[in-house]
Amino acid sequence: MKISTKGRYALRMLLDLAENRYNGFIALKEIAERQNISKQYLEQIITIISNSRILRANRGKQGGYMLAKEPSEISVGYILRITEGNISSTTCLESEINECKMADSCKTLFVWKELNKVIADYLDSVTLQDILDKYQEQQGDFYII
Fold first, then answer.
1. What is the C-alpha to C-alpha distance for residues 75 and 140, in angstroms, rounded to an integer?
2. Cβ density class 62-80: b for 16+ within 10 Å, e for less
């Protein structure tokens, strides 16, 4: 499994919204500048994410985006499934029904299933709030004398 730029940038954009959640609606232009991502690329990502109901949008002069849920309610796994479509480690497990001709006799299938479970469990256990908290904790580890 390789996470695309789209998935990584979506995570950064949503983290930015989480970090600035008390500032009202945030314009994509501001996020783009802070995250060093093109506004056009963020517009493409917003189109994908907007159907997931984790964002609220406001048009007009004071327009922009904000999270519709608390950062603690939005997992990395959820974000990646929206943007990547699938977080499977192998092609044979990408769909509900394994269509591989070797599925019934594959000696290694259990390995890939267990790997997918570990990956999904981990990504589903990490929320936007967890990332913000971990980052804040790491920043606190640096002392300047």
1. 24
2. eebbbbebebeebbbbbbb
Q: What are the beta bridge partners of residue 37?
A: none
Query: Can you give the pTM of this predicted structure?
Result: 0.87
Other C-beta atoms closer than 10 Å to the C-beta of 128 total 26
| Average pLDDT value for residue range 108-124 | 92
Dump pLDDT digits (tens) for 77-94: 999 999 998 888 887 777
User: For the chain, how many residues are written?
Assistant: 145
DSSP code string of 14-70? HHHHHHTGGG-SB-HHHHHHHHT--HHHHHHHHHHHGGGTSEEEE-STT-EEEESS-
Query: What is the rounded CA–CA span in Å between residue 101 and residue 82?
Result: 29
Grouping H, G, I as helix, E, B as strand and the rest as coil, residue 127 is strand
Phi, psi values for residue 57, rounded to 5°: -120, 150
| Across 14-18, 36-40, 110-114, 126-130, least confident range | 110-114
